[in-house]
Amino acid sequence: MTILLVEQNADRALQVTSRAYLLEHGELAYQGASADLINDEKVIAHYLGHLA
């Protein structure tokens, strides 16, 4: 089953999904497995604001 989740809270969204697409200014900035993204230093700096 596929569900489209549009959420401002990237930290929470990455915790409850298996795959994610992060947009910046309407453009695809990052995509991949949520587990990989939540530990990516650039994703942390731009979207999460803390170390996971």
Explain what the structure shows.
The protein has about 50 residues and is of the alpha+beta class. It has one domain. It is about 35% helix and about 25% strand. It contains three helices and two strands, in the order αββαα. The protein has helices at about 10-15, 35, 40-50, and strands at about 20-25, 25-35. The longest helix has 8 residues, at about 40-50. The chain is globular. The mean pLDDT is about 90.
Question: How would you summarize this macromolecular structure in one to three sentences?
Answer:
The protein is α+β, with helices and mostly antiparallel strands. It has helices at residues 10-16, 34-37, 41-48, and strands at residues 19-24, 27-33.
List keywords for this structure.
52 residues, alpha+beta, two-stranded antiparallel ribbon, 3 helices, globular
Compute the CA-based radius of gyration: 10 Å
Shape: globular
Query: From the structure provided, what is the oligomeric state, counting identical versus distinct chains?
Result: single chain
**Structural class by secondary-structure content:** alpha+beta
Blueprint (SSEs and pairs):
Blueprint: H1 10-16, E1 19-24, E2 27-33, H2 34-37, H3 41-48
Antiparallel strand pairs: 1-2
